User: Fold hydroxymethylglutaryl-CoA lyase from Gloeophyllum trabeum.
Amino acid sequence: MSVSLSVARKRIPHPLRSCLATNPSLRACTSRTYRTESKRDPNVVRIVEVGPRDGLQNEKGVVPAEVKVELINRLGRAGMRIIEAGSFVSPKWVPQMAGTAEVITRMEKLPGVHYPVLVPNMKGLENLLELLSATTAHSVGSLTSTIPPTDEIAIFTAATDAFSLANTNCTVAESLTRLAAVTQKAREKGLRVRGYVSVVITCPYSGKVDYRRVRDVSRELLEMGCYEVSLGDTTGVGNPASVGAMLDVVAGALPVERLAGHFHDTYGMGVANALTALEAGIRTLDSSVGGLGGCPYSPGATGNVATEDILYSIQDSKYRTEKSVDLEAIADIGWWISEKLNRQNASRVGRALRARKERQKKQS
Assistant:
């Protein structure tokens, strides 16, 4: 396996057709049962709620397991269909992810909802598989369900060696070799696999990123079996121009419906970048309730774009979520978890909705 940076001499006119014709692994994976409403309706947007994992991993204080469980439960009840529930990473490196096994065992498992967990390596996957093999029937309300704690993992790499070395102590090529084995075993066990590529715009250690590298790493993830690859502006320095330029390169060579956008709001560009991605054909966006987040390996990066802000930004537009999501309930969750963490609510929409409620109370 390689991550060569050979330059494409010309734009591929029909990315999906060309990729499927020349990459059997892409064709095989596309035929799997991972189709979403986004495939049937071009205006449906899937939102991956990453608050319980990516949102909490950079918190300084310890977040009790019961708070994590309650956060996931509230998000599911509010209509979120994909909720990243935790990470099977060593607590030595990311202390806030300690107790993920307890969290995904105790949380509600709602029908039709996916609860992916991040798995950094084979050890993490083995720990997850051990838990899944020991899982028995789980109660949801008054019913008994056999819904497993999760049916999906997420794996991650980066677009630069500098970031990969800081994050996982290996180069991008080395990480891809490790992840190929993890992906193969996970799929053999019936798990869906989603990929992340970090620092797709700018790396905090090596500067501006070569978008061809983003393209090549994303292709590697798709070919090894990821059903989708999320492109992360980890530092949050991207703007519509740079995000658009990156997507021109990546989506110009790979099936756009198998790409997702993951934007941080460091410079207040999260929503603008998300809308740019939608206009480029992306139909899956990662976001975090209350704008929770940051990155322990990207100094200065602030939280993910807020779920509330994304939901509000597509209201009254041609876009809609695949299932009805209660914006007011999501905003309330943003305030609830922000207060639990003793932090400011970073969602502009959440703050506006609360201010409106307070005005209405005074007027009543």
Q: What stands out?
A: Residues 91 and 98 are 5 Å apart (CA to CA). Residues 37-363 form a domain with the TIM Barrel fold (CATH 3.20.20.70). The chain has 15 helices and 14 strands.
